[in-house]
Amino acid sequence: MRGVVNLRDLPDAALPEIAFAGRSNVGKSSLLNGLTFRKNLARSSNTPGRTRELNFFNLADRLMLVDLPGFGYARAARSDIARWTTLTRDYLRGRAALSRVFLLIDSRHGVKDNDLAVMDVLDESAVVYQLVLTKTDKLKRGELDRVYDKTSALIARRPAAFSRLAAVSAHKGDGMADLRADIAALCLT
Does pTM surpass 0.90? Predict the structure, then answer.
């Protein structure tokens, strides 16, 4: 793992990079741990704002996974939040090796205004992103279907959004194989 707090410290862009973005406590670190079958690859916490840098994970010299700081509420000084928010936006706007951003959405809450703001940045920068509904095990099937349909309709109108929506539970493993397949396909392109 390599933590980066300044763009000049980014690793060489020799490998394709896949970034995981989302609101604080949406489940980014838990998802990374579940995707890689490792319990502690990325530190997860119940406290919002624990990830405060860009964390790069090299997967067998084939792919770089990037755990981004959460946006929205965090228990941190405003100056720290502003610093890591700027770092994240600059990374998302200008990283040539960035193959896709997986934008995580808590399925219990759906897409919020700050998610839309991130989508706007990605659309304007022409960075392909795929929405991932997380914590799907917390909803009943009918509720999840409604959130899925509403979110699918939303991304259909977004220019840089990948057309397929993912729905996962890092806790129970639901949808993880499909998401791994999406990521593996990016390694082949």
Answer: no
